[in-house]
What does this fold into?
Amino acid sequence: MLKKVLTTTAVTALMAGAAHAEYTLHVIHINDLHSRLEPITKYDNTCSAEDNDAGECFGGVARVATMINQLRSELDGENVIVLDAGDQYQGSLMYTTYKGDAEIEFMNKIGFDAMAVGNHEFDDGDEGLLKLLDGAEFPVVSGNIDVSQSNILAGKLNDHLVLEVGGEKIGIVSALAVDTPETSSPSDAVIFSDEIENLQHDVDTLTDEGVTKIIALNHVGAKKDLAIAEGVSGLDAVVGGHSHTLFSNTEEAPYTYPTMVGDVPVVQAYAYSKYVGHLVLTFDDEGNVTAATGDTILLDASVAEDEEIKARVAELAGPIEELKAKVVAEAAADIDGSRETCRSVECPMGTLVADAMLDRVKDQGIEIAIQNGGGVRASIPAGQVTMGDVLTVLPFQNTLSTFHVSGATMVEALENGVSQMADGAGRFPQVAGMSFTVDPAAEEGARISDVMVGGAPIEMDKMYGVVSNNYVRNGGDGYKMFLSAENAYDFGPDLADVLAEYMIENAPYEPYTDGRITVK
It folds into this structure.
């Protein structure tokens, strides 16, 4: 969430000439919960019950509920709305198991006032969004997607809406990232159009209806939100999601909370149930924002878990243990994913994971897959393969990341990947769609040679589509050259699910290596 305390001078300037009648609105918000209903570790994956009892965990929907209810209690009698900027779906075995039912149940229990559609609400097609629209006991909104041609969604989704709060009308407009067809699975009947153009249309519509206080509840990412705050006239605040960005005044963060674009405050609250945002807006009697304050609130162990919700989460978690025992594929032979091999040479498990990653996104113009060997944590024995086996291999709840980099950057990445082979470092690159030779004894910067992509020599100036996991794309294991990648999208499906589905499609899976990595 985004919050920035205005300086005294700025507040004075904003309030100059304002009428005496003021209206204060408290906007409590979350975004990108991504099915993290159970508490999470500092690395954002599911935390064990033992670690949670030891006070080492964050978030979880029971803490979200506690904080929202605490704020409501503290603000009793004041004007409060609770918003979600999208992506409740996808990201843990809770979603894999219940396909949105659990997330909807808890959102209803907490009592949101409005939610934006996130791209991952389409991960199970239009039917997945339909479940949310039918199950939510609050309005769901998105203004730049036309669902009128959909047999199941038509008439069910709000373009914009108006909330009555303390005798005032609060307009809510919304936009969803236009690249959602590439990052999720809406049908062709769902038509996307320009975010700014559609937001301006909806703001104008509300303004013509006499609504003077209008908030954009978006799922487009922080950079786009800042552009929207600048480019859409008539907005009073932007509450966002999608980029998992922390806006904070109390922690190191890319943006202060709120970040002001002119007179428009923009906020976001990271992701994964770790924070709740609290934006305080003061309006004059003409609907102009005269002050914007607040911050994101970290949900660490000092925030008690709502006992009723905690018990229900534990109940829902029970069958997930059964899921781990579910047979999902078959291995024709042992698949070696040992630390000794996957961090030093091409290994069968590394080949499998990289192949699965590339297969999942090859229709998006992606040519190369790269997986850090340290992200492969186990082997799989021959025979029946359970989901628990897959999760043992890939336990980190990493998501697929797609992006574009030059051939030169790709070679730089490979150099990083082989730079600590003698130490067995986890950065060793397992790849698909390409091949290379490494000489561990060569000087730094000269270890990599004979790089081929799709059977042709790599071109240093050419841009290549790459898929990896979100850890590597965000600079993990020394891959900092990917931080500046173009067209980066870090929030694809869970890598474990991708692997399981690939093994199902290729059962019984025959493990192999094919010489894509040559070590001199």
About this structure: The domain at 327-519 is CATH 3.90.780.10 (5'-nucleotidase;  domain 2).
